[in-house]
Amino acid sequence: MIKLKEALLKKEQEDEMVKKRVLEIIEKIKKEGDHALRQYNILFDGCKRENYLIREEEIQKAYKSISETTLDDLRFAAKNIEEFSKRQKEMLKDMKEQELLPGVFLGHRAIPVDACAGYVPGGRYPLPSSALMSIIPAKVAGVKRIVACSPAIKGTNCIHPATLVAMDLAGANEIYAMGGSQAIAALAYGTESIKAVDMIVGPGNQYVTEAKRQVSGEVGIDFLAGPSEVVVIADSTANPTVIAADILAQSEHDPQARGILLCTDERIGKETIKEVENFLKELSTAEIAKVAWENNGEVILFDTIESAINFCNEIAPEHLEIQVKNFDEVVPKLTNYGSLFVGEGAAEVFGDYVAGTNHILPTMKAARYTGGVWVGTFMKIVTNQRVTEEGLKLIVPVASRLGELEGLYAHKLAADVRLKSSIL
């Protein structure tokens, strides 16, 4: 393994000051509700709204303020996301009672959560695509109450119109102009004007992520998301220009974003570095992308594609692109990633916007144990059992002995009593 381009900065340790500040905000929201929410919204966003619920006339105004092309694009993306979510939901079916043992019937139901919230960032850029990604799968899942929120544009009382339209198109039942850790606290614990939800999904900055960490357990969350990241595995057949563009597409998100190339051809690696530098000369977001590339970007040369695959599985990237000749041999060996993009035509940006797969994905190696947001995120698989007299004769003696083994004698009693009484 040879590093043709190495990251300059190591991953920063968790900021204790952020933890402390977020805890203060959460506690204040819990105690003071809407009053504290208004204080923080004024402090952080300059939003002076008295009522954070977006009214219907505001939504209609947003529709009128965006172009027909933008509206058509949002509808196109929404349709694809919805269709893919519907096809995913077909995999989540109720399992009717099945007789596992004589007289022992088991099954499960797939039940949507009652209420969820989609947090849509609005800091550095408006992100209407994130509204579609968080709300549409919940709608398809059958969630009855879907809440959406996003911070107001700095110094105003309004959510970005494209984001607001996307929230409405996606099917949100309630939309609130609020952001930051104070919004997460309000959604988790409720205020006088906002009813708490059961689950919160969606990306955000370090304060939003820390707030989700602190309220997790009180409500469900998708996962803790960090800076965006992409890994590209490439052999000699890959296109350095395409790779460079895809790396920069991640790098422009945030100064902490990561773009990594794992290649088996030195020429591809060096040409990609050159192409990145060329693009940065003209890229309008170069101020951010250049910092991310210089500090966090890596190009690593491997002797074999197997070595690159093994290294990638250890990284467990959010986005993984493979630009290799024999991709059908490579794909089965890849086990840790948020979303996979196969071949030169499968740009990560398509996953961000229009292909139909979700772009709310695990970062910081979380892909080792979870996938991204999908229709199943909003559904619970809950089991059921029914036992006849025939089944009791089979399982009571075993359950009784195991209860006694563990010293839980009421467990033993609860099993034994079912054979000793005529309850059936």
From TrEMBL:
What does the record's cofactor remark say about binding?
Binds 1 zinc ion per subunit.
What is the role of the protein in this entry?
Catalyzes the sequential NAD-dependent oxidations of L-histidinol to L-histidinaldehyde and then to L-histidine.
Instruction: Kindly provide the name given to this protein in its UniProt entry.
Output: Histidinol dehydrogenase
User: Reaction(s) catalyzed by this protein?
Assistant: L-histidinol + 2 NAD(+) + H2O = L-histidine + 2 NADH + 3 H(+)
Q: In its UniProt record, which GO terms are filed under biological process? A: L-histidine biosynthetic process
Do you know which Gene3D superfamilies this protein is assigned to? Answer: 1.20.5.1300, Nitrogenase molybdenum iron protein domain
- GO MF assignments: histidinol dehydrogenase activity; NAD binding; zinc ion binding
Q: Which CDD domains match?
A: Histidinol_dh
Binding locations of Zn(2+)? 250, 253, 352, 411
Q: Name one Pfam family in it.
A: Histidinol_dh
Biological or metabolic pathway of the protein? Amino-acid biosynthesis; L-histidine biosynthesis; L-histidine from 5-phospho-alpha-D-ribose 1-diphosphate: step 9/9
Residues that bind NAD(+), according to the entry? 119, 182, 205
Names of the cofactor(s) = Zn(2+)
Sorted alphabetically, the keyword list is:
Amino-acid biosynthesis, Histidine biosynthesis, Metal-binding, NAD, Oxidoreductase, Zinc
A cellular component term from Gene Ontology for this protein is: cytosol
What does the sequence similarity comment in the record state about its family?
Belongs to the histidinol dehydrogenase family.
Q: Which PANTHER family match?
A: HISTIDINOL DEHYDROGENASE, HISTIDINOL DEHYDROGENASE HDH
- Gene coding for it: hisD
Give the positions the UniProt entry annotates as the active site: 318 (proton acceptor), 319 (proton acceptor)
| Chain residues that bind substrate | 228, 250, 253, 319, 352, 406, 411
Q: What is its EC number?
A: 1.1.1.23
